[in-house]
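Summary: Need help interpreting a holo structure output

Steps to reproduce:
1. Submit the protein chain below together with the SMILES for zinc ion.
2. Request a joint structure prediction with the ligand placed.
3. Inspect the structure token block that comes back.

Expected: a single structure record containing both the chain and the bound molecule.
Actual: see attached output.

Input attached:
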Amino acid sequence: MVLPKPGASDPHLHVVGTVRVPSEKFCLSKWVEEENLHGHYCQCGCGRRIRVLAWHRARGIPRFLRAHGPTGLTKETARYRAEGYLTATDVARQLGIGQTTLRRLEGKLFEQAPRRGTRKIRVFTPDQLPELQVLLKKETLLGPAPELIPLGEVARRAGCCRNTIRARLGKELPAGRLLTHPRTSFAFTPEEAEQIVAWIKQYVGTRPTRHT
Ligand SMILES: [Zn+2]
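--- attached output ---
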């Protein structure tokens, strides 16, 4: 760097504009007060107010109260839903069963759902729903309007004990089917149930209902 000799050159200074330096220094506590007056609310929708603190000035005012923000899991499931998939929660709700029940049925009533991401989130496709509804109706007593009628209900209709029917299953009466969901129980189609009720009423007669 070559400097001109002192006094050898004219600095040629010109005034090109004026800048007014604010005399009032930035006041942090005033900022906090103003932001709180303005009001910041949790973005989760809970409607609760976020108290602005001094250190928020540098780090930013949080958008959510603690533990109110979307977690990584929520974001991930939101992404799968946006892609058109259903989560286990969605499927369980649409089938009218609990999530635990759905998990128990997985691999038994229907094939294991594929898992996505590091969190191994189970994803379903919307076209699986009708199929699952049919399976649920035919193979279990779960969900709304199951097709099968449990033994207890048939016994109640026939006005006899469960054992009266159970002892004759596969002999005088249709075998029915042994379900394991939601509990181990014999169950019958509406036609079979009708047949059983008619047979019991004709050949066994009715007696006060017990154990049903
Ligand atoms: Zn909130």
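--- end attachment ---

Reviewer comment: Residues 42, 44, 46, 48, 64-65, 68 surround zinc ion (CB under 6 Å). Residues 190-204 form the longest helix (15 residues).
Status: needs-info
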